[in-house]
Amino acid sequence: MFTIDLDQYRLVDLSVVIKPPGTEERPLEVTLGSLADDTYRMDINRCHSHVGTHVEAPRHFYDDGKLITDIPLGAFLGGATVLSVTDSADQCVTGEVIDKHVGTIFEPDHILLCRNSIPHSREDESAWPMLTPDAARWMVEHHMKLLVVDQWFSLGEDVPATRQLHDILLSQDICIVEVTNLDDLTRPQCFFMALPIGFALDSSFARAIAIEER
Fold it and tell me: Which of 91, 103, 117, 198 could form a disulfide with 86 if both were Cys (CB 3.0 to 4.6 A apart)?
């Protein structure tokens, strides 16, 4: 029987908690209802597919792109390497910056977890680390499996750069996991998974977790 020795490994929840009513930009509006047996249910009246921790598939960017349900589950889990940006000098994350931080340990078919660890930067979005199209090209060239960013890490300095990054990755069927909290990770590498709900949509909610050595 397969087991995980929890004396040797620990489970780390990397998801953010989603609470109604959400935000104006990302709403989660619910009302309380009941089923035929008088048990409660909550009806989701207004929401979209990018609320909370979520996975984006190619359909997010292309009219004929793959939906979440078209992507094999194996694409959402595997060995992962943590890129922790600690210095504002590295705020503009290029391929060179990634190489400097994790180039010696990143392996083909690994997942890249991007964490903002720049002191006092989280309150000011303009101070967040930002990925560049050059970084996306590095990811493709190094056969990255999945990109994960925490909730204080930007996918580009502006809309055109963000769209270019999406195009580079999603055109290769490399999905993106957004709005995570990676603070509790203590190791440079772990096992990661973010399994999306089986919505035939461009994106889906997911519970992101890591398994790392104690």
Answer: 117
Low-confidence ranges of the chain (pLDDT < 50): none
Find out whether 209 and 13 touch, Cβ atoms under 8 Å: yes
Its pTM stands at 0.94
Residue span of the structural domain in which 43 resides:
19-48
Question: Is the same domain home to 140 and 164?
Answer: yes
Q: 3-class SS at 150?
A: strand
Residue in 76, 41, 38, 42 with CA at minimum distance from that of residue 173: 76
Helix axes 133-141, 95-102, angle to 10 degrees: 50
* 43 and 77, same domain (yes or no): no
- Quote the tokens at residue 55: 């996975």
What residues have CB less than 8 Å from 40, skipping those under 6 apart? 32, 33, 34
CA distances in angstroms from 141 to 12, 28, 51, listed in the order given: 29, 38, 30
Domain assignment present for residue 38? The answer is: yes
